[in-house]
What does this fold into?
Amino acid sequence: MRLQDKVALITGAGGGIGKETALLFAAEGASVVCVDYNAGPNEEVAAAINAAGGKAIAVKADVSKAADCEAMVKAAEDTYGKLNIIFNNAGISHADDDDAITTSEEVWDLTFQINVKGVFLGCKYGIPALRRAGGGSIINTASFVAILGAATPQLAYTASKGAVLSMSRELSAIHAREGIRVNALCPGPLYTELLMKYLNTEEKRQRRLVHIPMGRFGQAKEIAFAALYLASDESSFVTGSEFLVDGGITAAYTTPL
Ligand code: NAD
It folds into this structure.
């Protein structure tokens, strides 16, 4: 088991990448603190882990709220005695996120509150817990859009993921000497609710697919496997990386027809 005796906190565990990662981490021996602001699906994930013989608790928290982030870290330490892994994964992509002219300040602020401040708060309250555990691994979900721009704009989302990537790099440098690794996980376009809500017609999906050398969307589980590597001691010399799992989208200038 690759995460035996580890305690992992995963935000956005109620769906998509977070859910698949919670299930995988638990199957690899971790005790999992499932965090989401959507209580029902999050509790179902924790229940499925416990029913399969794993260990998990569900904590309802909004990652954009400091008190909630403090409480989720406390729940991890109170329940399992320590915290080794933080997966700051919760994020939103707002349906009204567009170009600079069209995107409202409300959409911009909400996106940054969750996607950027949420990661900051997860680190603010999580890093002291990792110190108490003698080190650990932080994985922050950024995106391939932190590296590439698109003509079908989601300006607030793209800017927020750029912030997650640069914040992760700086955190990795600050905490490297105390055994805390920080990596930005950069998924390509995935077949999850977050993206399919936005690419809601075949024409929009094809417009994105044409740029992916593999010619398909990724699956949340394929990101969970990358998170598993970054969480485990197998990646002990990996920190500050922009860990791309993207079907080749950032490597390609043109793709096969
Ligand atoms: P998803 O919508 O399927 O799941 C996100 C989960 O986060 C949901 O369960 C939601 O309830 C939760 N959440 C949202 N805001 C929250 C908050 N404030 N507090 C607590 N929980 C909150 O999305 P996903 O595709 O699994 O995305 C996970 C991460 O991956 C996000 O950061 C997203 O930006 C990133 N990402 C997704 C894709 C993609 O194509 N789907 C690509 C690159 C990066």
Notes: The chain has one domain: 7-239. The domain at 7-239 is CATH 3.40.50.720 (Rossmann fold).
